[in-house]
Amino acid sequence: MGYIFEPEILHDVARRAVGQPLDGIITQIANELSERYPGHILPAKDREWIFNVAGGAMGQMMVLHSSITEYIMIFGTPIGTEGFSGRFAAEDHFMILEGEQWSYREGSFEKEVYRPGDRNVLPRGAAKGYRMPDKCFALEYARGLIPAMLPFGLADSLSSTLDATSVARTFKVYAKAVVGNLARGKI
């Protein structure tokens, strides 16, 4: 079994949740995805916020699904951040739930602006600079070889912030979700 999630469906779920307080948005998204994809969304008891520093940008994430080929998480910050998107053998969909994200591609002289309900797509092999100028949270979905994304997602925590706690928590959540999905035949 390869990909089970469809970006358009996830975007629709995110758009329908926008406009309420953030905790309500997250609950609605998690509940809808749990109903649509039974057994593939982490139960509430296994979800936790974890600091993440990647590409120079600091935020926090809550993993909803993780497997060898896909992940879904809520990512964001209450105070803003900016950095490098990374360049991956995976495509990434960043669906704004609250706040605003700005991004640009190499050679661009104007920013792209994404607001609640919008989706910023990073194709395989592409990269962007991005900024969340203030509070911003998004539903993030990636599909491709997810383990190859982990070095980027953990390098700053290992080499700059030296935050072994967040690295260990990230591995714990990722490993538990991957093993659970493999047990159900989902790679």
Automatic annotation (TrEMBL):
Domain of life, per UniProt, equals Bacteria
**Presence of the UniProt keyword Transmembrane in the record:** yes
One Pfam short name? ERG2_Sigma1R
Tagged with keyword Transmembrane: yes
Kindly list the places in or outside the cell where this protein is found, as annotated in its UniProt entry.
Answer: Endoplasmic reticulum membrane
Q: What is its main location?
A: endoplasmic reticulum
Q: Which UniProt keywords apply?
A: Endoplasmic reticulum, Membrane, Transmembrane, Transmembrane helix
Name by which UniProt lists this protein:
C-8 sterol isomerase
* Organism encoding this protein: Sandaracinus amylolyticus
